[in-house]
Design brief:
The protein has helices at about 5-20, 25-50, 55-60, 65-80, 80-90, 90-115, 120-150, 170-205; strands spanning about 160, 165. With about 210 residues, it is mainly alpha-helical. The chain has one domain. A hairpin with a 2-residue loop joins β1 (about 160) and β2. α2 packs parallel to α8 (about 170-205). The relative contact order is 0.15. It is a multi-pass membrane protein. Its main location: membrane. One of its GO terms (cellular component) is plasma membrane.
Length: about 210
């Protein structure tokens, strides 16, 4: 296991949960969500890649890139339905369940996309490129829908932190921007980096001995 990314991912995950527990409106929620799935999760997946803790190694037939991409899509969009968001915001059980679902979905997708090293992993990593880019697209769409909505979708009081106060609509709009910049950006960069790795491996295989 790679200790540095694993430790960094663990620290960032704790920070995400602390941010979620602070209940700072949609801006705080989106910040915690993106910190979990788009920053901490890839670091954790990188840290355990290829080890006995790697879910893609333990259950390769289940933890596949496209399947995990679909699971994350359903969980992310499902938890951003107004009723589910209210359940998570207003109850401790809902908030804990939401955060566990986010980090599990993110970790499984990134682990499935990273796969294992070597030529045998090329098809899986190529599928990982598609899965990450598709995830970037649906994160972009959801972020745009939340950020550009003309009315408040979620019954919050807005962002309140000390002397800084945002109306519910401004809070929601900034939350959508966070998802667009951090969520969509992370999966896009991850997909492109993985694509570069796949192309390098194919180029190496194609060279004459």
């Amino acid at each position: 296991m790679r200790r540095l990314p694993l430790a960094a991912g663990g620290v960032l995950l704790l920070a995400a949960w602390a941010l979620a527990a602070a209940r700072l409106g949609m801006l705080g929620h989106m910040g915690a969500h993106m910190l979990s799935v788009a920053v901490a999760a890839p670091l954790l997946a990188w840290g355990i890649a290829g080890s006995r803790l790697d879910p893609a190694r333990r259950w390769p037939g289940v933890v596949t890139p496209m399947t995990m991409s679909l699971v994350e899509l359903l969980l992310v969009w499902g938890w951003h339905l107004p009723a589910a968001r209210a359940f998570a915001a207003e109850t401790l059980a809902g908030g804990v369940l939401e955060q566990l679902a986010f980090v599990a979905a993110g970790l499984l997708l990134w682990s499935a996309a990273l796969g294992t090293r070597g030529a045998a992993a090329l098809p899986r990593r190529a599928a990982g490129v598609v899965a990450l880019l598709l995830t970037s697209m649906h994160m972009t769409l959801l972020g745009a829908l939340v950020g550009l909505a003309p009315r408040v979708l979620y019954g919050t009081e807005g962002f309140i932190c000390g002397d800084v106060r945002l109306t519910p609509l401004a809070d929601q709009q900034l939350g959508g921007v966070v998802m667009l910049l951090v969520g969509a950006g992370s999966y896009l960069v991850g997909g492109l980096a993985l694509l570069g790795d796949v192309l390098r491996q194919r180029s190496t295989e194609a060279r004459p001995a």
